[in-house]
Amino acid sequence: MLTSNEKNTVIQFVHDKLAQDTTGHGIDHIERVVRLTQSIVQHEPSANEDVCWLAAYLHDVIDDKLVNDVQKAQQEVIMLLSTLSITQHQQDEIMLIINTMSFSKQLEKSFDYTINAKIVQDADRLDAIGAVGIARTFVYAGAKGSVLYDESIKPRLEMTKEAYRHEKSTAINHFYEKLLLLKDRMHTQTAKQMAQKRHELMLLYLENFYAEWEGRM
Ligand code: ADP
Ligand code: NI
Fold it and tell me: Which atom of ligand 1 is nearest to the CA of 164?
């Protein structure tokens, strides 16, 4: 079990790394993912709580959309993990989880996941949908200078990671390019159930959005 001192060290490390974020991936996102991870772990007896907790906290600090030098960030995380009371095998598993869980990475390749990886990935994806997910999408679009909606820019249904990141799109397109796909990609039963409600809210949201856009409501 991680000690509370060890946990505080990790929390401080993540706070320092993500303090500047204005794209919807700040510490509030991390803390929600940690809470969701804890809700899911309770129903997964074969999961390891420490591995899930650490992977949830650290999952975005090596992401290429958030840090300039991914290699350096990785080295720092490896160093940090080596100071904790977890095995080498667990350290390796955490690095593997945080290196392979991103939606954009999976556009090009699929991976075999451990139960711990599945849980943290589900938690991250739950935070991308529903009321919070909708809000984060507009925060991100604002930060990147994307427009709200443009009928002439169609959602992309097949895209490489490069295109996903750099081609022009809109906030509303993001629902079709990612958010509405997530419900069927959840791994655990708990996340599948939680995703259902969040998914329905997004559908209702889009319906109202178009009605308002067109002046029908
Ligand atoms: P991952 O970290 O799994 O690769 P992404 O980086 O694709 O996930 O997205 C994380 C969150 O950032 C999304 O759920 C969404 O809220 C926001 N986001 C990412 N790309 C876009 C985009 N093109 N338009 C609007 N929001 C986006
Ligand atoms: Ni995340």
Answer: 23
